[in-house]
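C-alpha cells incoming
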C-alpha cells in the first residue's frame, strides 16, 4: 500500500501576518517565511488566515463581532470585507511565489450543508491545489457577523479530520499567564485550561486566545492533534508539520 499523505490544516494567525498594533500593516517577511516553510513540506495543506490589523480594524469600526448584529455601519462592513480580500491577495501572492497552488474559498455563501464544500476541497487537494480560507463577514438571521479564521478551522477539522491542526501565533506557544514568562506549556491537558490566564489584544473582535484555546479543545475532541507554534520560527512550524511533539504547545487528539 502506498504511503498515506497527511492532510494538514495550518492557520496563519493575524498576529503573525500583520502587525496588530498598527492598523492595516502587513508583515510580508512573516507571510513569506510561512509560505517557504509550507512549500518545503510534502503534505497536502489547507490554509486559513486571520484578519489581524486588517479585518479586525474595520470590523470594530463597523460594530461587528462574532455575535449576530442587526445594527452596523454598512460602509464599514464593505471595508472589512475589502481589507480581508486585500490581505488574502498578499497571502496568495506569497504562496504562489513559493510554488504552491492556492485556491481561495470565501465562507460567504456557505449553507448548513457542507457536503458540496467538502467535495470541492477534496477535489482541490487531489489536484495539487491548497485551499485557502479567511475570516470574513457572513450573513446571519437579519444581520451580519464575523466568522473567524479560528471558527473556520474548527469547521474544516470537523469536516476533514486532518492529520493535525497547526495554529501559527506570534509567541512560542501557550503560557500559563499573559506575561509569557518561562517556557510555553508543552502539553496542554483540557483540565489545565481553566487555570490559564489570557490577555487579549484591544483590536480583537473574535475572542483572541481564550476562544482559540476553547476551539482547540473542541478540535482535540474530534481526535485531531492541535499544535500552537511560533509562526515567525520556520523550524517550529516544520516540526509541527512533521507531527513532532515538544515544539510549542500541543493538545493531543482524544480518540
Ligand atoms: N496565556 C497566554 N499564552 C499565550 N499567548 C497569550 C496568552 N494570553 C494572551 N496571549 C496572546 O495571544 C496572542 C495570540 O492570540 P491572537 O492574537 O488571537 O492570535 P491570532 O494571530 O491567531 O489571531 C499573542 O499575541 C499573545 O500575546
Ligand atoms: Mg485571533
Amino acid at each position: 500500500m502506498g504511503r498515506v499523505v497527511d492532510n494538514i490544516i495550518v492557520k496563519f494567525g493575524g498576529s503573525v501576518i500583520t502587525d496588530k498594533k498598527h492598523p492595516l500593516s502587513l508583515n510580508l517577511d512573516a507571510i513569506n517565511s510561512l509560505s517557504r516553510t509550507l512549500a518545503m513540506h510534502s503534505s497536502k495543506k489547507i490554509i486559513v488566515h486571520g484578519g489581524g490589523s486588517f479585518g479586525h480594524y474595520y470590523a470594530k469600526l463597523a460594530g461587528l463581532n462574532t455575535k449576530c448584529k442587526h445594527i452596523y455601519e454598512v460602509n464599514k462592513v464593505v471595508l472589512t470585507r475589502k481589507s480581508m480580500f486585500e490581505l488574502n491577495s498578499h497571502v496568495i501572492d506569497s504562496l504562489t511565489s513559493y510554488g504552491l497552488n492556492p485556491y481561495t474559498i470565501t465562507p460567504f455563501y456557505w449553507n448548513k450543508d457542507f457536503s458540496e464544500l467538502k467535495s470541492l476541497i477534496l477535489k482541490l487537494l487531489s489536484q495539487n491545489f491548497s485551499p485557502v480560507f479567511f475570516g470574513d463577514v457572513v450573513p446571519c438571521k437579519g444581520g451580519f457577523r464575523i466568522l473567524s479564521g479560528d471558527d473556520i478551522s474548527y469547521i474544516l477539522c470537523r469536516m476533514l479530520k486532518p492529520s493535525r491542526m497547526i495554529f501559527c501565533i506570534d509567541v512560542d506557544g501557550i503560557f500559563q499567564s499573559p506575561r509569557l514568562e518561562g517556557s510555553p506549556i508543552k502539553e496542554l491537558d483540557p483540565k489545565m485550561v481553566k487555570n490559564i490566564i489570557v490577555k487579549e489584544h484591544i483590536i480583537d473582535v473574535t475572542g483572541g486566545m481564550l476562544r482559540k484555546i476553547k476551539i482547540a479543545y473542541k478540535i482535540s475532541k474530534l481526535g485531531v492533534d492541535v499544535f500552537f507554534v511560533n509562526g515567525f520560527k520556520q523550524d517550529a512550524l516544520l516540526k509541527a508539520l512533521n507531527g513532532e511533539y515538544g515544539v510549542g504547545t500541543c493538545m493531543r487528539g482524544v480518540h
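note: The chain has one domain: 7-251.
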